[in-house]
Amino acid sequence: MNAKKTVLITGCSRGLGRAMIPEFIQRGWTVAGCARDAAMVADLQSQFPAPHHFMMCDVADDSQVKSFCEEVLDRCGTPDLVLNNAGIVNASAPLWEVPAEEFSRVIDINIKGPASVMRYLLPAMLKRGSGVIANFSSGWGRSTSPDVAPYCATKYAIEGLSQAAAQETDGKVAIIPLNPGIIDTRMLRSCFGNEAAHYPSPEEWARTAVPFLINLGPNDNGRPLTAPGG
């Protein structure tokens, strides 16, 4: 256990993000996180008080991400591990039936969100010369299925974005495209329906995945990885 270590989790109010919080805290980590739902953020802060810090932030809004990252750096210091977990999937439909506004929202959250977080945290992490950023990809960032073309496009983008940025950091900060696996989340249920129940819950996943995430390091820079547990 090392109480000095800090993890930053985007999209932390539900699903995988929410499930990881107690797992990190039990291991002595300080958790900083953000989500779009103000009530859920307030509940998290009440349940996990300081030194943990939670803030409302829509990662699709670069100015909100900037404010969130600046506050985390001020309150918690430079994070050791950043988990760009926030993401959405389009309502299942053929590409030509997905409204342009919905496509744009998926892009703004799933691609621009992680890019903004890296924009505002990497300078401090590079100055320190250490840290890991795991950008959550998907099995649909390495393969495809019908009716989720916008989501697939964003996760393929995360793979390329992460691997290119990993070359830019030269390993001083490891940047990793991470497929979490298949987990029974609201997002999966929107695609799989009741079949999602055949897969592990976020809590089951987190118990196996968090120890794996804690052990990521410089040797993993740029490697497309898949977390255990899903």
List the topology elements:
Layout: E1 6-10, H1 15-26, E2 30-35, H2 38-47, E3 53-56, H3 62-76, E4 81-84, H4 100-128, E5 132-136, H5 149-169, E6 174-179, H6 186-192, H7 202-214, E7 225-226
Parallel strand pairs: 1-2, 1-4, 2-3, 4-5, 5-6, 6-7
Helix pairs in contact: 1-7, 3-4, 4-5
Describe the protein in words.
It is a single chain. This protein is an alpha/beta fold. The protein has a single domain, classed as 3-Layer(aba) Sandwich (Rossmann fold), CATH 3.40.50.720. The chain has 7 helices and 7 strands; from the N terminus they run E-H-E-H-E-H-E-H-E-H-E-H-H-E. The longest helix is centred in the middle third of the chain and has 29 residues, at about 100-130. The mean pLDDT is about 95.
Structural class: alpha/beta
Q: CATH class, please?
A: Alpha Beta
Oligomer classification:
single chain
Q: Tell me the helix content.
A: 40-55%
What is the second-level CATH architecture?
3-Layer(aba) Sandwich
Largest sheet: 7 strands, parallel
Mean pLDDT: 94
SSE run: EHEHEHEHEHEHHE
How much strand?
5-15%
Shape: globular
CATH topology (level 3) name: Rossmann fold
Number of helices: 7
With strands numbered from the N-terminus, the spatial order across the biggest sheet is: 3-2-1-4-5-6-7
The whole-angstrom Rg is 16 Å
At the fourth level of CATH, the homologous superfamily is NAD(P)-binding Rossmann-like Domain
In angstroms, what separates the terminal alpha carbons?
Answer: 25 Å
Number of domains: 1
Low-pLDDT stretches are: none
Kindly state the number of beta strands: 7
Index terms:
alpha/beta; globular
